[in-house]
Design goal:
CATH class of the largest domain: Alpha Beta
Number of domains: 4
CATH architecture of the largest domain: 3-Layer(aba) Sandwich
CATH superfamily of the largest domain: Flavodoxin domain
Oligomer: single chain
Structural class: alpha/beta
Radius of gyration: 25 Å
Length: about 600
């Protein structure tokens, strides 16, 4: 049976050079020397540019008038990205647009001035939704501007929106829908329909890019070649990526939680030897997990399906068991899945839930249920294996904040993993990726991974700049990387860590390391909060409040402020507390304190990695 792309390791570069190539040895050597020092973004741009030239050559399209010599208005690409997916797609759009002859401006939403909107003629927006329908941090100001009184008329703007989200959330792609509806309401012309992308977004994004660029190209005065519809990153693929993961060898899988803890937190170390991969503090490691074999077996048994039945996986044949284990999601329920399932199972109660005007009824039903619950409650009679797999979305990778500095641990990447286990509706549930790593990966085993850059969570460029880090639980992971990096480069800037967990004796993650960093002076200060060690619970925001005067003094001295962890509650509480501290110790009104914190975010002195 052919190995599906998901688990196939990419060949080493030297081996790929030996494959058949239309280039001479001299040309190949010249190309190697040229691309070796380039960054992934530069490679993506060159890939799109060359694809456009190739398309023009094949079709006989005239050479383009250089972009800088044309009077056409530029195409502006504005993106709001929390984890980095939106930034990657925006880079793809830029590469393909320039290959087609557009003049292009690329801006993150936190770098884009809302007042520029009125002057735009061609606008593409890529934006993700986080939490319960909220814009990413970088997009908050632009989102608020559009929905405020100052927006005004946007007649003359032609636009399209690509919305990124996760259909397992109730407010799927809400931020993208908000932008699309508001731009239209303000008089802008929708040049191409909005596309809502789920976690498996590559194909949908590629189609939108092609369609939106074609629609906007109609206003160009000069002919432009049409680049291939695939994402440009598919033309020059980094050695290892989500589509082509590196098979990293597990070096360590160590428990961090002490005996008696209510949590099972692991420290996982993976080897990058031979991959050529590198990363910066603040980046994430993407893990491509497999589903629990016990869950796979239970699902096939409930459906009475043959595990050896053949399934077509994008042109390659695999067994049903392989597909349900390696390539498709079989736990999380989403609205699109339930819609298709209701039709296939002819389930009237599900149709009623889907048709209800009160959408909360559906989401209340989905909460705490997995696919096996749906199959048990509404059995499928005589369903073919191919039909069932067609209901499912692809198994998405999981991103973990990298807990190491590449300078401190060259050739390795570390992750801090909280194992998810809970009971719901009479069944024990396990997190797909966390239990894959905790229960089924031992030293020496291979783990498919890739590196996901996160430009929105980076250390200050000046190592003398003070930093304040707030990371309860596994949210402390990137700050281990921050402190290791600052130690490795000999940074002189002060550093302050707020850490919180349940109990001092069992949940103080990396305790000895923090104590050593404090002793060495790499970590200037540390405040901890253990919520279960006393009757009155104390969290990190309470420690911030207690140290408010000093914390404000650090901010006044230019400190950068970082938060990592839970978005729904912790990050909101920390944000509220930070604003209160600025108001109290800065002598500002609530409104002015809010503006102060917004300015910190705008200038990247306030960064969050929340999930």
């Amino acid at each position: 049976m052919p190995r599906p792309e998901l688990l196939e390791a990419v060949r080493p570069f030297d081996e790929r050079r030996a494959l058949a190539t239309p280039l001479s040895d001299e040309q190949l050597h010249t190309l190697d020397r040229f691309v070796e020092p380039l960054s992934p973004d530069q490679l993506v741009w060159i890939g799109g540019y060359l694809a456009g030239l190739a398309a023009a050559h094949r079709t006989g399209t005239p050479r383009l008038v250089p972009a800088e010599d044309r009077d056409e208005p530029p195409l502006t690409i504005v993106y709001g990205s929390q984890s980095g997916n939106g930034a990657g797609i925006a880079a793809d759009i830029k590469a393909q647009a320039e290959a087609r002859g557009f003049k292009v401006r690329l801006k993150s939403m936190d770098e884009y001035r809302p007042g520029e909107l009125k002057a735009e003629k061609k606008l593409l927006i890529v934006v993700s939704t986080q939490g319960e329908g909220e814009p990413p941090d970088a997009g908050r100001e632009l989102h608020e501007f559009l929905h405020g009184r100052k927006a005004g008329s946007l007649g003359g703007v032609r636009y399209s929106v690509l919305a990124l989200g996760d259909s397992s959330y109730e407010h799927f792609c809400k931020t993208g829908r908000d932008f699309d509806a508001r731009l239209s309401a303000l008089g802008a012309e929708r040049a191409y329909p909005r596309v809502d992308c789920d976690v498996d977004y590559d194909d949908a994004a590629a189609q939108w890019i092609d369609g939106a660029l074609r629609a906007l190209a109609a206003t160009n005065a000069h002919p432009v070649p049409h680049a291939p519809r695939a994402l440009s990153r598919g033309n020059v693929t980094p050695l290892y990526s989500k589509k082509h993961p590196f098979l990293a060898t597990a070096l360590a899988n160590l428990p961090l939680s002490g005996h008696g803890s209510e949590k099972d937190v692991r420290h996982v170390e993976l080897s990058l030897e031979g991959s050529g991969l590198s990363y910066e503090p603040g980046d994430s490691v993407g893990v491509l997990p497999t589903n629990d074999p016990a869950v796979v077996a239970e699902l096939m048994s409930a459906l009475d399906l043959d595990p050896t039945a053949s399934i077509d996986l994008g042109g390659e044949s695999a067994t049903l068991e392989f597909a349900l284990t390696h390539t498709h999601e079989i736990t999380t329920l989403t609205r699109p899945l339930v819609e298709k399932y209701a039709e296939l199972a002819d389930a009237t109660p599900l149709r009623a839930l889907l048709a209800s005007e009160r959408s909360s009824e559906l989401w209340q039903y989905l909460k705490g249920r997995h696919l096996i619950d749906l199959v048990a409650e509404f059995p499928l009679r005589g369903v073919a294996p191919t039909q069932f797999v067609a209901l499912l979305r692809k198994l998405p990778p999981r991103l973990y904040s990298i807990a190491s500095s590449h300078k401190a641990s060259p050739g390795e990447v570390h992750a801090t993993v909280a194992t998810v286990r809970y009971e719901s509706r009479g069944r024990l549930r396990n997190g797909v990726a966390s239990t894959y790593l905790a229960d089924r990966i031992a030293e020496g085993d291979s783990v498919p991974i890739y590196i996901e850059a996160n430009r929105n969570f980076k250390l200050p460029a000046d190592p003398a700049t003070p930093i304040v880090m707030v990371g309860p639980g596994t949210g402390v992971a990137p700050f281990r990387a921050f402190v290791q990096e600052r130690e490795a480069i000999g940074a002189t800037g002060r550093s302050w860590l707020f850490f919180g967990a349940q109990k001092f004796t069992t949940d103080f993650l990396y305790q000895r390391e923090w104590q050593q960093f404090l002793k060495d002076g790499t970590l200037t200060r540390m405040d901890v909060a253990f919520s279960r060690d006393r009757a009155h619970k104390v969290y990190v925001q309470h420690r911030m409040q207690q140290q408010g005067r000093d914390l404000y003094a650090w901010l006044a001295d230019g400190a950068h402020f970082y938060v990592c962890g839970d978005a729904e509650q912790m990050a909101r509480d920390v944000h509220r507390t930070l604003t209160d501290i600025v108001a109290e110790h800065g002598g500002l009104s609530a409104e002015r304190a809010t503006e102060y914190v917004q300015e910190l975010a705008r200038t990247r002195r306030y960064q969050r990695d929340v999930y």
